[in-house]
């Protein structure tokens, strides 16, 4: 397991603990080198009708040595992504994503 995947799994566990209504977390291992990309789906979120990536700087002091890019989706938005009615940003390919 790569360092990026280890960090992705640790973040996924922490996010599920913070939001128990998280139903899906996907890790995108083919993202840019040195970057962790996650897509998270939660029934706690309101639908936005768009998939916006949020970028966070690396935080080595907190055990996250890579920048993190996170897309948060409501269940309704996730359904639209799955049906291809709502596109993900360029470079976010569901066929390469791994469920965590």
Topology:
Layout: H1 3-18, E1 22-27, E2 36-42, E3 53-56, E4 68-74, H2 75-82, E5 98-99
Parallel strand pairs: 2-4
Antiparallel strand pairs: 1-2, 1-5, 3-4
Shape: globular
Structural domains: how many: 1
- Largest beta-sheet characterization: 5 strands, mixed
Mean pLDDT: 94
- CATH C-level class: Alpha Beta
Q: Helix segment count?
A: 2
Query: In what order do the strands lie side by side in the largest sheet?
Result: 3-4-2-1-5
Would you kindly provide a written description of the structure presented here, covering whatever features stand out?
- There is one protein chain.
- The protein has 100 residues and is of the alpha+beta class.
- The mean pLDDT is 94.
- The protein has one domain: Beta Polymerase, domain 2.
- It is globular and about 35 Å long.
- It is 24% helix and 26% strand.
- The protein has a five-stranded mixed β-sheet.
- The chain has helices at residues 3-18, 75-82, and strands at residues 22-27, 36-42, 53-56, 68-74, 98-99.
Short recap of the structure:
With 100 residues, the protein is of the alpha+beta class. It has helices spanning 3-18, 75-82, and strands spanning 22-27, 36-42, 53-56, 68-74, 98-99. The chain has a single domain (3-99), classed as Beta Polymerase, domain 2 (2-Layer Sandwich), CATH 3.30.460.
Question: What distinguishing features does this structure have?
Answer:
alpha+beta; 2 helices; 5-stranded mixed sheet; 24% helix; single chain; 100 residues; Beta Polymerase, domain 2; 26% strand
